[in-house]
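Hi Y.,

Following your request, here is the sequence exactly as I used it, all 265 residues.
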Amino acid sequence: MEKKLKLAAVGDNCIDFYDQTGEAFPGGNPVNVAVYTVRLGGAASYTGVVGDDPHGPFLRRALEGKGVDVSHLHTAPGSTALSHVSIVDGDRVFGDYEEGVMEEFRLTEADVDFLCRHDLVVSGLWGRVEGDLPRIKARGIPVAFDCADRPEDPAAQRALPYVDYAFFSNDTADDGALEDILRNLHARGPKIVVATRGERGSLAFDGTRFYPGSIVPCQVVDTMGAGDSFIAGFLYGLMRGRDIPACMVLGAENSSVTLGYAGAW
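Below is the corresponding structure, written out as tokens. Let me know if you'd prefer a different format.
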């Protein structure tokens, strides 16, 4: 029986609150990647912090229900992070973000030890763990990082030298400009850099060649979590020794599932 490799997702979480309908969904980049990894058949944990408000237990129960290890999900006095979301022309538009207890989130030594017992660690731009990545990387654990749509952000720039697999989104740059961005980010340290481009697919760079990726046509209900689904699929493939084109296919297939329903998961 094939060993079930385990991914450690660490950093931000939030409640995605849809202002028009009053619906609330658990989410956040690392949280989503953990859930989607389990959906693919892998194993995952999530390390972070929620508040002692009603949203905190809601998010914890939701993750437990999806089979994600929450043994290092902390609870602190205060509010769970919340993102206000609206749907405009079928696409989700983010409004105000209330960071809550995530503002003071810091990893403990026990958290770092726990993360380093996994096969891969993934975080992102708002995870507040970029300063901890050197310690994780030094212990030989592969690291992935999502720069969102701001790879130039100081947090991303601080993280990149200690990252093996970097992701960001850009659906506006032409092919030549995007290739230049990928080259520049690769020069910061990652082995592989991947740009997701919405309807235009994706593009990866390993320092030698570029790999274009296609989308999987599907009916779009909500784009929330689509990029995180791609990351989960791509990393799931890497953890199982797949090559870059195969990982991009897994990412696109996983995104198409998420696009078909409301909310991240």
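The first strand starts at residue 6 and ends at 10.

Thanks again,
Q.
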